[in-house]
Design a protein that fits this description.
Layout lengths: L7 E11 L6 E8 L4 E3 L2 E3 L6 H13 L1 E16 L2 E15 L9 E5 L1 H7 L6 H10 L4
Parallel strand pairs: 1-6
Antiparallel strand pairs: 1-2, 1-4, 2-3, 2-7, 5-6
Helix pairs in contact: 2-3
Amino acid sequence: MTSPQKPVRAAGCVLWRRAPTEDGLEIALVHRPKYDDWSHPKGKLKRGENALAGAVREVAEETGMDCRPGAPLPTSYYDANGRPKQVRYWAAEALAGAFTPSTEVDRLEWLPPAEARTRLTQERDRPLVDALLAALHLA
């Protein structure tokens, strides 16, 4: 009998900043050329790494932003390359920083929540926008 595979552990943030828009905020989405997709900044955890620390590290690596993590958001579970994957998310306010394109992430866009929801490639990422708004008491 085979045991189920341990899930790949990953973490990320729904990164937001205050903006002079109707919603009062914008959400950062990253474009990954390898997958040609738009997603929230996230990535695999290093061995023994705490999920929140990994989420903050991934935001810095993918967006160049320092952030202040806030409320935990729903965890995503899905299969990636035939393996189960678990991604823990937090709301995080962008504090400072500058985006530098890389081979992993070539574009960063700040969008109002409704546009961010539409731009996200994966359906499973869209409820995180609503969860962020609820966590910030804007929903």
